[in-house]
Amino acid sequence: MPVAVNNEEGLESRRDRETPLAIAARLRAEFGIELGKKARVPLPRSIYDELSGED
Q: Which of 13, 24, 31, 54 counts the highest number of beta carbons within 10 A?
């Protein structure tokens, strides 16, 4: 059980330190993924509405 507690504490402390953007950047660096210029432009809201079924 102590191992599970340590893992949970580690995850909580990381969540407190890292923003979602920092997490994404860390994972991209870890896996060697580079974003192109197109990937940095957000999709229009209509795309998300279509995916969720809210037309």
A: 24
Per-residue pLDDT reduced to its tens digit, 4-34: 666 676 666 666 788 988 999 999 999 999 9
Which residue range forms the structural domain that includes residue 22?
2-52
3-state secondary structure 20-35: HHHHHHHHHHHHCCCC
Distance in angstroms (rounded) separating the CA atoms of residues 47 and 50: 5
Note the pTM of the prediction, 2 decimals: 0.48
Number of domains making up the chain:
1
Distance CA 28, CA 31 (A): 5
